[in-house]
Structures are given as C-alpha cells and as structure tokens.
Specification:
globular, mainly alpha, 8 helices
Length: 230
C-alpha cells in the first residue's frame, strides 16, 4: 500500500525530525538496563555469600544473583541518579535480609540496625533527617507494641527492620511510606494462604499454618512503595 512518499534510487529516505533522538534515547535506556542487570548480578554474588555466612546455611543457587539483577534493571528506570542508587541499594540490602529470614527465620542485627543507622545518617546529611526520623518512629511504634504484647506473632527483628524501611520510604514520599506500612501484613497472609493450599494438596491432610517470615513481605512492600512514588 502506498504511503504517499517518493523514494528515489540512490537517495536515502529522510528521517522525520525527532526520530534520531528517540532511537538514541531507546539505545541509552537499553544500555542502562543491561548495565543494571550486570551490576545487580555481581552484587548478588556478594549478597549470596553474605547471606550464607549470616544464616549458616546455603541459599538456593542463583536466587540472590537473579533477584539483585532484576532490582538493578528496575532501578535504572528511576529517572534521577539519586533515585536509581537509592532503590538499588535498598533492594540489594533487602535481598540479603529476606534470604536470611527465609532460611533461618531470623533478621541479623548487623543488617537491620546497620541498615537503619545508614538510612537515617544519609537522610540527615542530605537534609531529610526529620522526615526519616518521623517515618521510622511512625512505622516502628505500632510494631513494637504488637511485639511486646505477643512476641510470637511479630519478632524483634521485624521491629528493627521497620526503622530502616520507615525512614527510607518516608524520605521517598507519603505514598511510598503508606504502601510500606500497610501492605506487608496483606502479603504475609497471602503467602500463608497459598502455602497452606499447596501443603494441603500435597499431603491430602489438613496442615497447620506454616511459619512464614514477615521480613520479606516488609522489604517487598517498601520496594513497591518506591515504585509507586516514582
């Protein structure tokens, strides 16, 4: 079907204005995503080794590398360099925490308290200290109350983790904080329900509710909150 344009032999077709810029932009985006994947996979190897050392057990092969690679790719879509770096660091740190929590149902202090101190310090020196402290306090306080009332239902590690996640998401924005605060319980309940169905079908018996760590849901919700804010 004719397009109404005449192309003469030996004369290259004229590229519409702006098309070259779009091509260059798409190429640059692809390069950034590939770079994020490569960087994430490299970091994932270190995260894998750290998680294995902290847990005293070996995680599934490749799980940390793949998760960190995906986070690296998503981080490149954040727009600004600070947003990209913040999401990547938070995500890679979260992979380490979640891996250990899944393996041994424990969140190491070196990651929770160290992460909280790091987030608050960076926020303070970048002029967001008040928001970070407020976000950390608002997220941690109700969780601390629940932990004191029923330590078996919510561990101390989850309370410590809330300091870092509350501070980080508060600096990112109100929507990020709300998602990080409200979504984890929903995610954990869904995981428990799915695992219950799987176990029931596998054993053909009514199983007890499987013990599910809450830390991974908290980390996933915080990362999703960052995405929503962007």
């Amino acid at each position: 079907m004719s397009t109404g344009r005449l192309f003469l032999p030996g004369v290259p077709p004229r590229i519409p204005a702006g098309a070259g810029g779009a091509v260059r932009c798409g190429t640059l985006t692809s390069v950034m995503i590939i770079g994020g994947v490569v960087a994430g996979a490299a970091v994932g190897s270190a995260v894998y080794a750290l998680a294995a050392r902290l847990a005293g057990r070996v995680p599934a092969a490749g799980i940390c590398e793949v998760a960190c690679a995906v986070i690296g790719a998503v981080a490149t879509l954040g727009g600004t360099a600070p947003a990209t770096l913040a999401f990547a660091l938070l995500g890679w740190w979260s992979v380490g925490l979640a891996t250990v929590d899944i393996l041994v149902r424990r969140l190491p202090n070196i990651l929770t308290l160290g992460g909280g101190a790091g987030v608050v310090s960076v926020a303070w020196f970048t002029g967001h200290g008040a928001a970070a402290l407020a976000g950390a306090a608002l997220m941690t306080t109700p969780m601390l109350v629940v932990h004191l009332a029923s330590p078996r239902s919510l561990g101390a590690g989850d309370v410590k983790l809330a300091v870092a996640l509350g501070a980080a998401t508060a600096v990112a924005g109100t929507r990020a904080w709300l998602v990080a605060a409200l979504l984890p319980s929903v995610l954990t309940v869904l995981v428990v329900a799915v695992l219950g169905v799987v176990r029931r079908r596998a054993s053909r018996a009514e199983p007890a509710l499987p013990g599910v760590p809450h830390g991974p849901s908290m980390c996933a919700a915080a990362l999703l909150g960052f995405c929503v804010e962007q």
